[in-house]
């Protein structure tokens, strides 16, 4: 829980960390003065930073790019000079142009905007000072989670505020932003936005690189050069995309490889990774995301249009927490995992596939960072309420309303559980609990509203309707509210997910034997591998930890051989189970579709609407009571998991992303999931594959 | 140390005289008589061409001139005097008798040490602390009859029990004396050695060759596990130049001669070898060959492997040498390649024919300041690319530059420093050099005056491209002088709780900066993690350039107050640093050798075959695989033989495997008991054959695979206890005497399981 000292804008968490509201000071002083103040940076290892032009030249002149250019020239029959010229253009399109003056401008603008949107931006000072120290000693990689567009510059803003070198930012971006594709909005405007971002340190990565060898080469040399020279800290999203469900995503490894390679090849002594957890009380894009997930068309995603819409600027988004995690030394983490000698017998600039060892290590580290991001995120009271709201029958929310005191009672119960699990909860200690919860509801009036001691789901209003609303349409409206709720639930999912999987295993297997439970746990983790990110190779540690958490919160007895539900733990266990239930139900529906209705060969484009309409049917007929089956995220995750389980295979020849469906295998998975047959019946052993 | 900036002209004699004075210092010939020693003159076969028996530096009783628990001459050391100044005592060096006003401050600031916290050494060698000798009576009896001088005196023995690793010197300072040789023998010539080896074989005693005792790889340490009587073969009295061949520019020299004597004597005739390792005051020709030494002027003269033309080595199986002095041959692997660097494990080098050069007409020092180390390395790389390196070019990092500064003596014009006066102004103000980042290269040019001047210009032009500024001759000269006194400085540190060591590596060019940065950073991090209370000094310099890479030399030192077992901590840090070197693509050693069990044991074994081959096989001169060449009979005995062209390891005690040899000469030994290793017979060309000593087999017959495996492991560790060739028609192995290090390796490495465990314990 949080003790806030409003006067100074400081808040203390139960973890003893001190969070400081950086807006507090801005509210008291001149924004312009702040932006224009003298800045004293302690550069990396005392050396001066080179200019952008020099950096780019180093990239273009690199031996690595020479090799690649020659390779490509031979492959394509064009001349080396041409290829190198192409590389130069790519780099120009890509590169950042970090400038102090732009940072000042950015800082000024952000201060203005942030003061409107947020009540406070809390930053943990200890993390910040560790980061500051790290920037002087090693190249630093800032790795925030990505839940909102606003993440993009907020880190730079904070570092700028505290005189810490501002990062260059890897930004995956649509072509039109680069001015490569004509867009509805003016090209010039787009270019200008792009330029402003560049000057704030952003460098641009095309969204679909595919197999463009030269592009990969230029990008990776650019990234590596920045890391090698300690040009500036680098920020990138290891999850690759913005999470539309507020749940962590399975990390992408390409960028991570590039960033770590200078260490593997001994080009730097060490690299420091700083996981950063950004948590929002309320997310700017909440309804945008819900619409996207439901496949409902939404306004074109543009940077300016979002900020321009005055509506957005008038709303209150509560507080934002930015938690700078403990710096991770890559050297320390890689000990025993990477044998750097392997790079000694060939030139290090030779284009080479990463070794298996390196891949495994990168994968592991990337997952680890995501885990640390999760653990560092700050949970709001609202997220707990969302958990509870979602466990109420849907009709209670849409029609008769949920009793307020029932909701608050359960939320307070959950507060205890979440604290037992060791999470960072942001629950103001000085405010009466009921006020805390009421204000949470007030903040989220876009999702729920409170009336006469009851809580109702907000049904989206459509302007000027002509005909009466159809059941489908009504359902879609409920769905969008439910998906918003679900994403707020997801903010605290990481705290419960592993014990919840054990609780589910207990329930489905009806066994108390550890090894059986573990086998089922592994199966669940494998099937839900894209829902709940787990660290490769650490399933059994996770399982152990989950068991001891269950024990700690009194839900189960643990012995050498057994995990037995305890008498007083039923409430906890059923809560945990109910957290996972929507996922199981959704997956069952989709598996059913694949077995019974779908064709042998499918594309993703066919699969999504087909499953959605099946789910719609089932929801309307009352057979299915989770709206999460409608989410395209859930649907895609299932496909990915099935591919991993080899129940679905990509047919090679086809261009259209076609899948071959192995119906028998899918049936088996469904049967295992419903507990009809034990997980051992699956051919592949989950543990070995994770 | 040679100063000849203004010299020139072609007066060879004069130049030679000058060099003689400079290099040798002011050494008088020490008294040589000792009643404990039995003297007998050796009639060397070519004694008439004996260049000079006069002016030899090292007496049999080394204790008369040298320290027993520190570096160098008894009369020379650094002290902090009462006035808060540092003094260098004695008269031998240019720096001798001078005051160094800046050193104490630097010392206290760098290490957090204080002159009030002393950790003085035990002065007197307490003979009663030395274990009584474990004598092999029969051997001693027969040794007496040969007339070769020997001694069991405690002091004599202690003096031959160690090199100059920190872990060897540190206990001595505390008066702790470990296992020492039981006997010291002073052969006077090649034949004496043959006799001693023969007796050692016969009586199963362990022999350890001892040259100058400057080893820094623990190669001289007596293995604790050795139960046999250990005999130290001190070569110091085999110190004559036997002949000089002016037509071919070679000199034939006994292997015990030490560097300064060799240079001085050759200089008298107007020649030099140009081989100048920093330890040349004390290290011996045989030692250089045995450790693959490298001299600072290798760019002109070559490393030891380039300098030797012919080597004579006594092995338990006989004498091995090439049959001619041709400059190159292609009959099989070059036997020199496994003699060089064998560190006394294969035999004792007795005589060497070396290339000589006329003493250069002109010498000039120089120095260049670079804005930072990166620029400096880039410059050295360019110099190497253009193949225009001066006789010596070395690049010190900033820390070392500052260290060099602290060593500036008072009131001597040649020791002016560039942070003084005009130059200081020039460098720090005008050029914007940051005194905390700049670094210095020192240069030494040699040759004809004209050419030197031309060469100098070329190098300075290159330097200018990398932001380098010429910083004068004095700074260069001082840089070189310091390398000769640095070993004395360690003793000073040891007096005040500061321990220090150096190690070196060779790396490809593209990794030089990485190695320097990472190893230094690793040292700092390890010290911190291992509880060292004060931040360490961790510094490096690039000391040699090659076409494909460079040699990097690291110093590291720290204040050990507050540590319970400083040596252990130190070794852990050093180990980590070496691990870092390997991970960065550096070699275990560029010139110090790998004898140190610590390094080899723990690092090589841990690494896979490839690296083992890299480092160890070069030393042993062979590559081993455990594949058996098809068609060879199943082995029966315990002899494992390596036959090369296909690197076949096979075993066959009874077969004659050796063929016609043009490169091996029949043994010249007079003793019939010594098998003559190579004879004409049909069969493949001769290649190195490794003969597994009975002791490896531990008395039991071995299966081939096991034997191969063991030999491989041992060779991999290069504790090779084998010798060339099976005795003609021999059916069993003779006892092996060259096992002086093998026992360690045996117990530790024979079983793979065991060695893995070792390794894991370390990390
Ligand atoms: C201050 C200092 C500076 C140094 N600088 C350099 C340098 O610049 N370059 C360099 O290469 N090394 C240097 N060294 C390392 C050392 O001086 C060399 O390894 C040198 O070659 C050793 O010679 P030594 O005569 O002292 O041999 P020792 O120390 O006596 O013996 C070294 C090894 O060789 C064996 N050995 C000795 N003589 C014979 C022989 N006749 N036959 C067979 N085996 C023999 C010994 O058994 C032992 O294993 C330095 C050492 C110190 C302490």
Automatic annotation (TrEMBL), chain A:
Q: Does the keyword Membrane apply?
A: yes
Query: Phospholipid/glycerol acyltransferase domain: from which residue to which, for each copy?
Result: 140-281
- Protein's cellular compartments: Membrane
Q: What is this protein called?
A: Phospholipid/glycerol acyltransferase domain-containing protein
Q: InterPro entries, per this entry?
A: GPAT/DHAPAT, GPAT/DHAPAT_C, GPAT/DHAPAT_LPLAT, Plipid/glycerol_acylTrfase
In which pathway is this protein known to take part?
A: Phospholipid metabolism
Which terms are listed as keywords in the entry? Acyltransferase, Membrane, Transferase
Q: Cite the PANTHER family for this sequence.
A: DIHYDROXYACETONE PHOSPHATE ACYLTRANSFERASE ISOFORM X1, GLYCEROL-3-PHOSPHATE ACYLTRANSFERASE
What does the entry list under GO cellular component? Answer: mitochondrial membrane; peroxisomal membrane
What biological process terms from GO does the record include? ether lipid biosynthetic process; fatty acid metabolic process; phospholipid biosynthetic process; triglyceride biosynthetic process
**Family membership:** Belongs to the GPAT/DAPAT family.
One of the record's GO molecular function terms? glycerone-phosphate O-acyltransferase activity
TrEMBL record, chain B:
Q: Name one GO biological process term.
A: lipid biosynthetic process
Enzyme nomenclature, EC number? 2.5.1.26
Could you tell me which pathway this protein works in? Lipid metabolism; Glycerolipid metabolism; ether lipid biosynthesis
Superkingdom, natural source: Eukaryota
Residues annotated to bind FAD: 209-215, 291-294, 343-349
Active-site residues, as the UniProt record annotates them: 553 (proton donor/acceptor)
Sorted keywords for this record are:
FAD, Flavoprotein, Lipid biosynthesis, Lipid metabolism, Peroxisome, Transferase
Give the site residues for Important for enzyme activity. 394
Cofactor(s) needed by this chain:
FAD
Q: What class of enzyme is it?
A: transferase
MF terms (GO), sorted A to Z: alkylglycerone-phosphate synthase activity; FAD binding
Region: Disordered, residue numbers: 25-60
Q: Name its cellular compartments.
A: Peroxisome
**Predominant location of this chain?**
other
Q: Name one GO cellular component term.
A: peroxisome
**Binding-site residues, substrate:** 490
Query: What SUPFAM superfamilies does the annotation carry?
Result: FAD-binding/transporter-associated domain-like, FAD-linked oxidases, C-terminal domain
What is one Pfam family matched by this protein?
FAD_binding_4
Q: Which InterPro entries match?
A: Alkyl-DHAP_Synthase, FAD-bd_oxidored_4_C, FAD-bd_PCMH, FAD-bd_PCMH-like_sf, FAD-bd_PCMH_sub1, FAD-bd_PCMH_sub2, FAD-linked_Oxase-like_C, Oxid_FAD_bind_N
PROSITE patterns named among the record's database cross-references: FAD_PCMH
Q: Which family does it belong to?
A: Belongs to the FAD-binding oxidoreductase/transferase type 4 family.
Q: Partners and quaternary state? A: Homodimer.
Q: What does this protein do?
A: Catalyzes the exchange of an acyl for a long-chain alkyl group and the formation of the ether bond in the biosynthesis of ether phospholipids.
Give the protein's recorded name.
Alkylglycerone-phosphate synthase
